[in-house]
Structure formats: structure tokens, C-alpha cells
Amino acid sequence: MLTAQEALERLKAGNARFVKGEATQQKLLTHQERAEMASEQNPFAIVLGCSDSRVPAEMVFDQGLGDLFVIRVAGNIVAPSQVGSVEFAAERYDCAVVVVLGHSHCGAIQATIDTLKHPDQAPSSNLMSIVNRVRPSVEILMQTELKDDLKKLSAHAVRSNVFASVNQLRHGSAVLESLIEKGKMIVVGAEYSLESGEVIFFDF
Ligand SMILES: [Zn+2]
Questions:
Q1: Between the chain's N and C termini, which has fewer beta carbons within 10 Å?
Q2: What range does the domain containing 166 cover?
Q3: Among residues 116, 203, 97, which one has the least CA distance to residue 159?
């Protein structure tokens, strides 16, 4: 089992390879290699990321089959099923790190901004359940001068939405809170740049 620091270093090293175009994990596995993994898994980190087709966690961190326990949902939001998934993996596989991975140009953030600007054109109730979880992070920014600069607003909203998800995972679950208090797990926020391929880890 890796420590939180070791797990983070492994993710950062993988992303550095991905950025340089030197990814090593995209090889095809043999039938035997795949079959050997069937009986158990041992992921070293949990990633809660966005469903965006351009941000597959395994690729951007250059990790292989069985390395990451990944939860993807539009806008990397935290609803009960996401908390449950993180609890499951944290307890069962002793993962010491949970990364909430947002990204630039996130469609879920844009959909939230659009809905707030044009409340008369609300999306379906299902999509609204995602928008409503992103909304507090965007709403507060729309009360500042950022509201007049869509590009800046979207960039800030991505970060504040990651922060909100990190916060919810840290404090919205007794199971996770207890693991964090015992020093067995950390939850960190990060942002992937669609342009550079780089993942920046936040200090919050
Ligand atoms: Zn997104």
C-alpha cells in the first residue's frame, strides 16, 4: 500500500509522462495478464473526475488497468452515490489519496452559468440535479465583477467547484472524515488543462 505522498508522486510522474508524449501504459495486455487481474484489484488512488471525453483519468495520469478507482460524473460533483463509491474504495482498498479532478472548459460549469443567466431556459430535471450541485460555486462568483468576463468566470468556477467537492468529501461522510482524522487518507483538489495536458494540484 502506498502512502498518500507516494501515491501523489506516482500520479504526478504519470501526468508528466503524458504531457511529454512519453506515456508508457497504453500497451495492449496479453490475455494472461488480463486474466491474472480478474480475481482481485488493488488500486492505489481514487479519482473523482468529470465525464468529459477529453479527461480520462487513466490516460492523463498514465496509469494502467487496476491502478485507479475512478468515479466520473459530469462536473465532478459529489452526490450520495459518489460519496458511497469513494467510501467503498477507501475502506476496501486502503487508498490513501482521493483526487477531485476538475478541468478547463468544463461543460457542466458552462451549463450552470447558462442556467443562471437564462433561468427561463432550464434544462431537464435530470440535468438540473447536476447544475444544482454546481450552482453554489458559480452563484457566489456571479456576485463579483467576474460576471462580466465569461472566460474568467468559467475558470474561477472550475476551481471553486473542485473545492466544493473536496469539502463535501472531507466533511460530508462520517466514514471518510474518520479515515482523514486517523491520517489514513487525504482528499486533494486538482485541475486538468485541456490545452497543455497538465494537472495542477491545489493546496486547499
Ligand atoms: Zn467537465
A1: C
A2: 4-20+41-199
A3: 203
Q: Binding site annotation covers 106?
A: yes
Ligand 1 center to 174 CA (angstroms): 28
- The span from the CA of 204 to the CA of 182, in Å, is 19
The whole-number average pLDDT for the span 8-15 is: 98
* Distance from residue 185's CA to the centre of ligand 1 (Å): 25
Instruction: Tally the residues of the chain.
Output: 204
- Residue 25's pLDDT is 80
Residue 28 has pLDDT above 80, yes or no: no
Query: Which residue has 462536473 as its cell numbers?
Result: 75
Cβ neighbours of residue 99 closer than 8 Å, sequence gap 6 or more: 11, 45, 46, 47, 48, 49, 188, 189, 190, 201
Q: What's the CATH number where 9 sits?
A: 3.40.1050.10
The answer, yes or no, to whether residue 26 has pLDDT greater than 70, is no
Distance 195 CA to ligand 1 centre (A): 14
Give a yes or no: residue 31 inside a domain. no
Beta strand 199-201 with 186-192: parallel, antiparallel or unpaired?
Answer: antiparallel
pLDDT tens-digit series, residues 92-139: 999 999 999 999 999 999 999 999 999 999 899 999 999 999 999 999
Count other C-beta atoms under 10 Å from residue 152's C-beta: 14
Could you give the number of structural domains in the chain?
1
